[in-house]
Amino acid sequence: xxxxxxxxxxxxxxxxxxxxxxxxxxxxxxxxxxxxxxxxxxxxxxxxxxxxxxxxxxxxxxxxxxxxxxxxxxxxxxxxxxxxxxxxxxxxxxxxxxxxxxxxxxxxxxxxxxxxxxxxxxxxxxxxxxxxxxxxxxxxxxxxxxxxxxxxxxxxxxxxxxxxxxxxxxxxxxxxxxxxxxxxxxxxxxxxxxxxxxxxxxxxxxxxxxxxxxxxxxxxxxxxxxxxxxxxxxxxxxxxxxxxxxxxxxxxxxxxxxxxxxxxxxxxxxxxxxxxxxxxxxxxxxxxxxxxxxxxxxxxxxxxxxxxxxxxxxxxxxxxxxxxxxxxxxxxxxxxxxxxxxxxxxxxxxxxxxxxxxxxxxxxxxxxxxxxxxxxxxxxxxxxxxxxxxxxxxxxxxxxxxxxxxxxxxxxxxxxxxxxxxxxxxxx
Amino acid sequence: xxxxxxxxxxxxxxxxxxxxxxxxxxxxxxxxxxxxxxxxxxxxxxxxxxxxxxxxxxxxxxxxxxxxxxxxxxxxxxxxxxxxxxxxxxxxxxxxxxxxxxxxxxxxxxxxxxxxxxxxxxxxxxxxxxxxxxxxxxxxxxxxxxxxxxxxxxxxxxxxxxxxxxxxxxxxxxxxxxxxxxxxxxxxxxxxxxxxxxxxxxxxxxxxxxxxxxxxxxxxxxxxxxxxxxxxxxxxxxxxxxxxxxxxxxxxxxxxxxxxxxxxxxxxxxxxxxxxxxxxxxxxxxxxxxxxxxxxxxxxxxxxxxxxxxxxxxxxxxxxxxxxxxxxxxxxxxxxxxxxxxxxxxxxxxxxxxxxxxxxx
Lengths: 428, 361
Prior knowledge:
The complex is a heterodimer. Chain A is an alpha/beta fold.
């Protein structure tokens, strides 16, 4: 009841609501599932096509979305060793369940790769030596491995502190919450990449859902890059590691519902690895962090506009990949010719050049405007900014892309952070 | 943050901290920096050419008032050689637009720039108050946005302007980028961050000289310069979808002030796949305005209003019914044209009524 509406407007809205209610009544408990049309099967949720589906149809829907990605991409060949990152979260549990189901002998057209399940333990990074929540999480994950993985599946627990020795120091040296969370996110993927090399795996599967990928896309935009890599089904990261996101078509809500409806005892342990006491993660003070802001925003907007997450991913599908490794194998000559950033493997973003008569886009862009503002120097009453201002007009010759430069500059121990990010042994 | 004892650029005591960079500056140095950055944006993007007539889209609000003041100042200081005119659109919103137009008329006098006002009533036969009464308070920003864009273009064409400058700031551009991403509008995303947009169809190109200026800094500039502007939000704005994008952008700016320019940077560097399907821009078969559809959105909305079905072209169910409506409009227009001008002398854009009105008058 909106007091600002006139009587006529209220009547129009009321009639529409009546039609919606009629529609809902058609798919109510009495009518049964709209997918299998069995009146005895009670609908439990609505999926993307707004169909009300029963438990069996929902489980089949999730399985289909998972399998369809592999079928369309043809990325993984029979017998290939594939690393499956398991964090104990919602997406990871769904991924474990679907991979196990897909590899079962009784499954029609079963998947034929060899999975290697890996949990990256961050307990020692945050000085948790046995009593803290991260140690408890590790124990819970190992129990899940024992309870839910067939004996023939490889499973490993690797320590992040051993894979990235300077990580703890680098995290403590980050100066803002955004950089902290970005480093945490990158370190997880870096550890998975190193693990894939250690266990001779050609691909890395992660449990990132559509909601999570939409978040990562928005985070990437807020840090200066919009490309297909953040939300794609597969992306090639630094070191040539191919990351695959088989849960790309499922939202976080759907994976949570999957865990509940599967009723096989495999439940999420903890949302994500983080130091809960870190003041940099307390989004209630000092403006928060970009990842925190985006996560809460997207979660709220998705409830009012359910197509939001898919709109973001669909837009990303129309973009080119910034991955230099991906570009060199395609007809994208611009990406193939680009220099890869050693920290993230993506192409170096366009650096602002001087006024050398080049095209307008290289002479006028937001990065250039930001550098101008930060480096303005006034000489007397001259209305022109000083051209000696921090070498603004000289061609930028940075080693890293802009996003990675911002991350590195946000750490007081840059050398330590570089060691964590740079893949010295990576094959480019 | 430690209090600064000296302005970043001179020896004076700082009077404000720049939202964009966090630098503590005195008032005069803030003016200098703000004007220097705007001048750099204009020069580096080759926004104007000497001798051009530039219509400044002015509403009486802070952005357009600051834009008019800045362009006049920089035009004289750096000899751009531009002929500046103020162009305003009166949507017919009682209690809002009439007050801002009063402020605009005072700006016309203080800056000495000639002002021309076009009204929705003159162009479309409807005021926004009448549109809201007919269509309701949902999606009314769709009507106003579509109508105003075309009105500005037509007004600039009437003034024989070479360029149309608007007061869109960094916050506006960042919100637009986020909004287009959230709605999955790849076509608009590809051009929304351009500083100079060539609309085509013989219409003046649009420029955004304040594209990299933060909204907070525009407010500070207007405040310290004591510029006369009208600062109230439109009565019908609160329900707009853009509000969601604005809330996100504000929170991102609070977390990291440079995030606004990072968002714009991401949109400027965007590259689409060569096989990505994008709508092509053509012209409306009824009015000749640039459009990606056979009939432009303004004509479709107007047809809905005139036929008593204003919600036909807005909302989720519009995709199929909009096509049917366009087809019907084209068919009716063809029939009217044949009856009105005759097939040999059919004028582009004639839908019968214009000729009929001319004949009556």
